[in-house]
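#struct-help
A.M.: can someone run this one for me? Single chain, 130 residues.
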Amino acid sequence: MEKGLWISVCFMFLIILHFHIATSFYLPGVAPEDFHKGDPLRVKVNKLSSTKTQLPYSYYSLPYCRPDHIVDSAENLGEVLRGDRIENSPYMFKMREPQMCNVVCRLMLNAKTAKEIKEKHAAQVLHCWE
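D.P.: on it. Structure tokens below:
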């Protein structure tokens, strides 16, 4: 192979490799967000799903700690189409600030509620956090 042809082939290979590496994708409605030290980081909760059932449950269908007012916060159409049920939670952190374990709330469970939690656990219900 001639030297000029070899250089052209190598150059074309590098151009193709560059375009292959430089590809990316964009998720509509998902944009990067900048945080500074001390900024509040609010935790959102999603539906409860299971590997054994097809029906999702609302996160607050079980007796978890709740905020004073529950607000739906779907941020884009994709979340709605996937069936996500994103809601606020009472959990909050601050950016780059160490925090020890804190008690958010204390709940007393009666026998019926405890049985319901055990049944959901047996159905392998998974928690989704956002």
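A.M.: thanks! The two ends are 57 Å apart (CA to CA).
D.P.: also worth noting: DSSP finds three helices and three strands in the chain.
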